[in-house]
Amino acid sequence: MKKVADTLGCAIAPETVRVRMAPSPTGFLHIGGARTALFNWLFAKHHNGKFILRIDDTDTARSTDASMHEIYTALQWLGLEWDEGGDKGGPHGPYVQSERKAIYDAYVTQLLDSGNAYHCYCTPEELAEIREQARAEKQTRSYDGRCRHLTSEDIERFAQEGRKPTVRIKMPDTPIRVDDLILGSRNIDPATLEDEVIVRSNGMPNYNLTSIIDDAAMQITHVIRGTEHLNNTPKQIAIANALALEVPQFAHIPLVLDDAGRKMSKRHHGDLVAVNRYREQGYLPAAMLNFVARLGWSYDDKQEIFSVDELIEKFDLARVGKSGSVFDIKKLEWLNSHYINQLDLSARTDAVIPFWQEAGLIDSTEQRDRLENIVEAVGERLTTLQDIIPQTRYFFTDEFEYEPKAVKKWWGGSDEKREKTSEILTHILQILEEVPSFDVETVEAAVWKYTDENDIKRVAAMQALRIALTGTSFGPSLFDIVILLGRDEVLKRIPRAIAHL
Ligand code: GLU
Hints:
This protein is mainly α. It folds into three domains: 153 residues, HUPs (Rossmann fold), CATH 3.40.50; 111 residues, Glutamyl-trna Synthetase, Domain 2 (Glutamyl-tRNA Synthetase, domain 2, Orthogonal Bundle), CATH 1.10.1160.10; 97 residues, Arc Repressor Mutant, subunit A (Orthogonal Bundle), CATH 1.10.10. It is built from 21 helices and twelve strands. The strands form five sheets. It has a three-stranded parallel sheet with strand order 1-2-3. The chain has a three-stranded antiparallel sheet with strand order 4-5-8. A two-stranded antiparallel sheet has the order 6-7. Strand 9, helix 7 and strand 10 form a beta-alpha-beta unit. The chain starts with 17 loop residues before the first strand and ends with a helix. The relative contact order is 0.08. The site of glutamic acid has 7 residues, from loops.
């Protein structure tokens, strides 16, 4: 494999970049995971490289197929298609780690045979004791490497006791140099690294082993991942060196934090970190990608809106910050409404139809023209596509409540005031029954003629009617609502309001 040049400044031969996202299918796709996927995908696209999706499922107890498919769906929704791996296959497969055990076993044998790894027979109780002692002595390592020196008699005895060994890698005595394209270079003091367990006592290989083997086997040139893996990197380099594997370049992306500086996590933030939540609530993939791209990456101090093509063109690891980025939901909402407003009427209608269907408000018999007219009337009021439901429910059903606050303010708090509102609505009802043509201009002119001639404030009449028709005091232009509801419906709803008054 060609050694890939440093990306900080040096040009990369386009065909050489191979990056990967390696999710563990133990839950939903997290915002942080989406960002890892996006940064890898952008890096691949920018360099004309390949984006590989590897499934890290060696933790068989926690991995599920359902989670794996949820991750596929979330990535596909975001448009982050992969070139190899996942359900697609490719020349370096299989891409699912649970199907690669024979490969790992072969490498483990190589490590054991070359004396770079050894069996450890310590029981969990013994390990706890060793850890305790290390803590008391203020040691930096919590395992002292005692099983490095077992005699064949020791091994015989342990085997007879039925102990199942783990396999540990011998950490080197010399410093490990970690070059990071974002965080810079560090030398890791070997005294801080203990002999890592690379195979569990049940025979299953551990993440640090499988990850670096697969990165080499899949010819990954750059490992771009979150800083939560920073401590794993020297261990993985040590394993690669012991196996004479090519070491990829590393780039660790700082954490996504909340506004209190805490890591965004499922435990603290619930489904706020789940990508699917945003799809369900009607965020557009373009808004999500734009938002996620800006979690840690910036082009300059000013630009906030980036199309996907622009991101591909401009994305560069050199502009990924070293410190954590703050998750600001307000910014995501702002971006989402921006992208919704960018859609033309037809595309916006297509985007909201599934939400109306899901809410049971429309079926296939609904007229497309009417739907487009409703979307047009709503205008730029949507922050999420889901907002279409509360904002337009009354167009499809008359089963709504009159909002108490609106009622109090516009229909009136006193009997006298309500009497007056009832009178106004009765007049309007009559006008609407009689107008020769039911279109915005005619209806509007007729209603204003009545209010102006009778010294009734236009706003008072308008709001009284709006509540009668929709239950609320906010929404699209009133006369658009009147026309979209149609004469029959309006003539039913006004008497119902009068009866309520
Ligand atoms: N399976 C690991 C994770 O989901 C992958 C880490 C890596 O990219 O090496 O965090």
